[in-house]
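TL;DR need structure tokens for one chain.
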Amino acid sequence: MFLPGRLKRPRDSRTELFFASIRVELRAPCAATPAPSKWLLKTTTMPPKHHNYLLGIDIGGTKIAGGIVDASTGAVLLQERVATLAADGGAAVLARALSLAARLRNAARSQDIGEPAGVGVGAGGQIDPETGVVVAATDVLPGWAGTRLRDAFEERLGLPARVDNDVNALAAGECRWGAAQSARNVVFLALGTGVGGALIVNGRLHHGARGAGGELGHLVVVPDGPPCTCGGNGCLEQYASGPALLARFHALGGDPAITHGTPLADLAAREPNGPAARAIAETGKWLGLSLVSLANVFGPDRFVIGGGLASLGDRLLDPARRVLTARALPGVRSVPILPAALGTSASIVGAAALALEITGD
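>> reply
TL;DR here they are.
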């Protein structure tokens, strides 16, 4: 039986056969015991070589990535990436993503993997999780707002679809198969060009009353700090993103010819007291200050840090841990701060994790 909810049941004969034959086990997305109102579709008994796989699609500003993911392990069996070509407009980007999804679905069939059980889509912008519509988007994806992603994928593929913000998708993947397995309350931060965030509360992605919950990059850490792209001042994004780290490195006397953050880890290893090491440590302290507030408010099981800056490892996270231990309330001082675990395929795996979610009435 297929559970009712916002994933619509396709009506062609192939999917009717699937829904008539599949047996499901209900599990909360981040825990071994069921949550009261959010469930995962975990296939346990099904026709051979069919339906134990998911299709994950990630739509970003520069690339669209997709893959066929094993629903039991999170392993990526097939994957493909294409350029977004965002300047072509939202309709063209959607068409490109749908074509990629169709190719992957057909490849799974031809390689005897079988029909995916569903498709999950992680996309840039603010997404209404109830309707799968892009509510708002930046100029990185011009013409993207208003795109009806869920309906488009369901109509093209004949599969149930689940759509959410790309950072929420990353958090869902870490919760299901990565660093946050077994945890029910998780704060996820993606530190890269900007700072994205997601909240898992009682085993459920928290979207807030208007679908914009979890925008942790715009947590104000210094009220009169540098201006932020959101129009405010002193947001975490101005202190713990890649550009903020690079600016701090230059301010501390680092080589001005270095214009991206990739070399900083090697520089820090060679010069433990040099500008790269100091810039990373200061960035970690700012991260830690934000985690103090988040720990006191949410009391999570763990923090998970993803994005490009997570590759700095303990050089970044140890200063954050020290700040958390020194300044958080006693009950949350020891909350683990962990790097994300899913690696380069995290966006695909996270999108696939969304496809597991079925919300009952």
